[in-house]
Design goal:
With 109 residues, this protein is an alpha+beta fold. Helices cover 58% and strands 17% of the residues. The chain has a 3-stranded antiparallel sheet with strand order 1-3-2. A hairpin with a 2-residue loop joins strand 2 and strand 3. The chain is elongated. The two termini are 29 Å apart.
């Protein structure tokens, strides 16, 4: 018997906020902290905690600097981060395919 598609889901990546961070960040070369916070509807503290998990896992880099006189924090996916997101999407697609196949096998009556 083959493993269920859910066994391929990565606990670090699959968490809703972290998956959102990776997805939004993948859409651009890098994103600014306040943009992520607003896009995902998070508090600054909550976003910081999730970014810390992703950074520790090597999936994002966090760069702090200044734009003019304003402090900015920029988030960028690493190569491993892009791969982890790609793998997560593939696992989700496999899960969806399995569910849809099971739905076709169900006798409606």
């Amino acid at each position: 018997m083959t493993e269920h598609p859910t066994s391929s889901l990565d606990d670090v990546v699959h968490q809703r906020v972290r998956l959102g961070i990776l997805a939004v960040t993948r859409e651009a070369r890098r994103v600014e902290f306040t943009f992520l916070r607003g896009s995902l509807g998070l508090t600054g503290g909550n976003l910081s905690q999730h970014l810390g998990v992703l950074e520790k896992a090597g999936l994002v880099t966090i760069d702090k600097g200044y734009e003019g006189k304003r402090a900015r924090t920029w988030i960028q996916l690493t190569k491993d981060g892009r791969k982890a997101l790609q793998d997560e999407v593939a696992a989700l697609k496999a899960l969806i395919d399995q569910i849809e196949a099971a739905e076709q096998d169900v006798d409606p009556g």
